[in-house]
Amino acid sequence: MAEDEYSHIANTLAKQGYIVVEDFIDAGLTKQLYHHVTSLPASQFNTAKVGRQQTAQQLETVRNDKTVWLSNTDAVEQAYLNAMDTLRTQLNRQLFLGLRDFEAHFAHYPPGHFYQRHVDAFRGQSNRVVSSVFYLNSDWSEQDEGQLILYQPDGKTRLQRVLPCFGTLVLFLSEQFPHEVLAAKRDRYSIAGWFRTDAILL
Asked: Is 1 helix (H, G, I), strand (E, B) or coil?
């Protein structure tokens, strides 16, 4: 990605708090990520939880997607993490956000699965600053549904509907924008991630 494209991302994020970027990374890597996540055994996926750390719990009436965390032990996962680390560096350079780390997991939404409206961080109580969602689904149409709905900070007014199309990246400020994932009619794959202000302890 060229320097001016990073500048556009940073400037838009600073101005409106969110941005939708098409063809964020090379299509070849996106295809590799899709083939990788769809080849993972079902036993590696866990039903996602609501809440953080010790207070997290499964609430399938709120969300029922399946997740597996990315690590630097797999070359394809590492390639994506490297791309996001470059983005982290650029955001810090241009916006002085103090982002120190990035964490991410694959998310699989089987047909009919969803995630109700929520925020990724509560004001002043989280180290998550910028949320990201990257989509791996080819040939996705409106009829497949499964849109990401971004809301205004008031949590009531719909701001944007995003189809989970191949190669699309969504970035938004974690504390400010409630959002939800509508149920899809086919298997839906993405990578959800968060840029943080503290380092992840391994």
From this structure: coil
- Reading the block at residue 150, the tokens are 């971004």
Tokens of 133: 């969602």
pLDDT value for 200:
57
- Report the DSSP beta bridge partners of residue 69: 105
Residues 6+ apart with CB under 8 A from 63: 48, 50, 114, 115, 116, 118, 181
| Listed residue (42, 49, 103, 27) closest to 72, CA to CA | 103
Q: Tell me the domains of the chain and their CATH numbers.
A: 3-40+64-196 (2.60.120.620)
41 burial via Cβ count (<10 Å: 0-12, 13-18, 19+): exposed
Q: How far apart are CA 156 and CA 178, in angstroms?
A: 9
Task: Quote the CA–CA distance of 89 and 66 in Å, as a whole number.
Answer: 30
Residue with tokens 């009829």: 143
Q: How far apart are the first and last CA of the chain?
A: 29
The pLDDT assigned to 199 comes to 57
Asked whether residue 94 carries a pLDDT value surpassing 70, the answer given is yes
Per DSSP, the three-state class of 7 is helix
CA angle at residue 176 from 57 to 115, to 5 degrees?
A: 40
- Write b or e for each residue in 117-128: b if 16 or more Cβ atoms lie within 10 A of its Cβ, otherwise e: eebbbeeeebbb
Sequence-ordered strand ranges (E) for the chain: 18-21, 46-47, 66-69, 101-109, 115-118, 128-135, 148-151, 158-162, 169-173, 179-181, 188-196
